[in-house]
Design the sequence.
């Protein structure tokens, strides 16, 4: 990045402030769209931070909301300018989940549940290569390599000594049993997972098959929390053609409660570490 400004987070903060100004004015997104002769969907995308916001957009919206304090307008205009900077991930070209990467880059903590595979932040390079190639069979080798490089770059959030990401991962046993690549590759992956689970800011728990039905059977999701109280938590659900971001307090609360149930039903940290190590030994036979 050209500076320490995270454009994704800047867009979210700016969008939240614009929504607050609209609500203070007592206007609906549809009414604002009619005034500016734009689509309602554009106003919604501006407010949820999914679309770049130009300084002209900010000026026009402040005009509609009759914001008279020039300091507020100037501050919002600067946020719009910052939001159009490029994050480190832009140097890799078009990344489908760039919004998520921007959020992850600025997050203070991340809670992940994955029923099928080892989460990206904990993958070895070889595991990531085999996983991406298998999941995207029609993808060119150059694109696979680019995605692997991005994944390895993301892992700096947990390898850095300065303000590392607090990561809590709950895995289904299936993620450990599914042979991605080959058995040797899986052994290396699980041995690394055991090592990473001993980092003070990384927690790994496993839900064994014998636990039966549990709240995570609906699929993978992640909960991101941020150091600034002004930034609301986000639930991220990865999709095939598009991803889902849930930011409403009620939605985040429901997924957080579900995550607490998952942690309670999973093996504790020491049991999970031994469980992973035992499976890694099975792959060595």
Sequence:
């Amino acid at each position: 990045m050209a500076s320490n400004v995270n454009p994704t987070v800047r867009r979210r903060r700016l969008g939240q402030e614009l929504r607050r100004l609209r609500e203070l004015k007592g206007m609906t997104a549809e009414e604002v769209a009619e005034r500016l002769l734009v689509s309602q969907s554009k106003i919604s995308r501006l407010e949820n931070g999914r679309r770049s916001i130009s300084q002209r957009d900010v000026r026009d919206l402040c005009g509609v909301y009759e914001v008279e304090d020039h300091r507020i307008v100037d501050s919002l205009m600067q946020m719009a300018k910052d939001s159009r900077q490029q994050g480190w991930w832009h140097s890799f070209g078009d990344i489908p989940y760039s919004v998520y990467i921007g959020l992850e880059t600025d997050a203070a903590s991340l809670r992940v549940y994955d029923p099928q595979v080892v989460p990206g932040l904990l993958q070895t390079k070889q595991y990531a290569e085999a996983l991406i190639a298998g999941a995207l069979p029609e993808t060119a080798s150059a694109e696979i390599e680019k995605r692997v490089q991005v994944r390895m770059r993301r892992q700096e959030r947990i390898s850095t000594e300065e303000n590392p990401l607090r990561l809590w991962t709950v895995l289904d046993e299936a993620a450990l049993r599914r042979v991605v690549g080959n058995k040797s590759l899986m052994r290396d992956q699980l041995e690394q997972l055991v090592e990473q689970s001993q980092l003070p800011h990384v927690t790994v728990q496993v839900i064994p098959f014998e636990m039966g039905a549990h709240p995570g059977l609906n699929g993978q999701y992640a909960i991101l929390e941020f150091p600034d109280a002004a930034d609301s938590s986000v639930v991220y659900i990865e999709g095939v053609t598009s991803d889902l971001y849930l930011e409403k307090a009620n939605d985040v609360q429901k997924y957080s409660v579900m995550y607490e149930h998952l942690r309670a039903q999973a093996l504790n940290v020491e049991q999970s570490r031994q469980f992973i190590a035992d499976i890694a030994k099975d792959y060595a036979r």
